[in-house]
Amino acid sequence: MTEIHIVGTAHVSQKSIDEVREKVEAADPDVIAIELDPGRFAALKQQMKEAEDRESGAPPSEEEKTQAPEVQTLLKGNFTLMLVQWILAYVQRKIGMNVGIEPGAEMKEAIKIAEERNIRIFLIDRNINTTLARFWGNMKFLEKIKLVWILIRTMVGTDDETESIDTEMVDSLTNPDMIELALAEFQKFSPTGANALITERDAYLAHGIIGLEHSSFERAVVVVGAGHLPGINRFREHPETLPSMKSLNELPKKYPWGKIIGSLFVAMFAVIILAIAFSGATDLLIWAIIYWVVLNGLFAGIATLLVKGHPFSAATAAGLAWMTSLNPFLACGWFAAIVEARMRPPTAGDFKAIAKAETIHDMFSVPLFKILLVAAAANIGSTIATFAFFIFLTPLLGVDLEMMTNILTTGFANLWAFLTGWI
């Protein structure tokens, strides 16, 4: 049996960095297990190399030539989740800057020590893409709305709000009572999100630690976030409760709810327009169509401008929103993003620039971030307009509910008579 020594860390804490080194020196392990997956491990290694080059004054090594990101390819994926991931990383980076510690510094310290002492490294965390896919895919609609709203508020106020976060507050994140409180709050906010980000990863990490425990190594130091310790300990004490690795790695099933709901709205719009047309209320029909076009255009265009999209991008969103809202397989945000990419082309260094952004202005100045933000904003604006049209249809047309009911009833009767007359 391998002797296991676990260090629970806060990802932006100098205290955690010191604890990692102290634990390794005390335990003298022949393996160090880290809460990383291969992708994040490679990213941290690259950051470490760049930092070493800067310190030594060595010229940066020639990077492999990379192409600018393909906007259309990104739009085909879940670009909203990508934006959420970027913003979460930005907030963590801001907290780290406040306390003078780069996020993931304790993991880098563990890697550095392992390389200095020629100690084996084990990566025991789940692939980040799987975690994010399960996090976003399993969240309920209202949970997603709440999360996006909080992130928007954070983006607007984070530069001021994070100033109050100091080293003492960050160090308290490794306190068991604080951890329990924070986990309970997250569970209340988003039970399904907490399950994917915390509980499932607790289980995945526990699988790795239990496997290590039964390996041929003598001593192992395990470096994980303090928030995972309670769950890991529970699973180690009761391994029979561990879900299988297969179930933890399964991607959530995708149901086309967006297209289904979009199709229902399109059907409702078509039925209402046809009913008004067959009622003989020609003026109301014309105004209903005008309001549909204007509402979609205004909301989509204004939403694009609010995120500082190019005027041409806003014009594209405004001009196409009425039409794409009638097709659940199209979105005005896609077209607005393509125009944004033409006006402000993304570059090969945009991903790195987003990862290094220190202020909101820095984030907004990266073309790729702006392009995906424009796509999301235009789509949200058009969606809000669609709901607004159905909610405020009668006051917009200047008729009361009884009159609108009579118009629709007459229209449906005439439409039915027209259809049955052909049979």
What is the global morphology?
elongated
Average pLDDT metric: 81
The percent range for helix content is: 55-70%
Can you summarize the main beta sheet?
4 strands, parallel
What tags apply to this protein structure?
21 helices, single chain, mainly alpha, 4 strands, 423 residues, four-stranded parallel sheet
Describe this structure in words.
- With 423 residues, the chain is mainly α.
- Helix content is 70%, strand content 5%.
- The protein contains 21 helices and four strands.
- A four-stranded parallel beta sheet has the order 1-4-2-3, sandwiched between helices.
- It is elongated.
- The N and C termini lie far apart (81 Å).
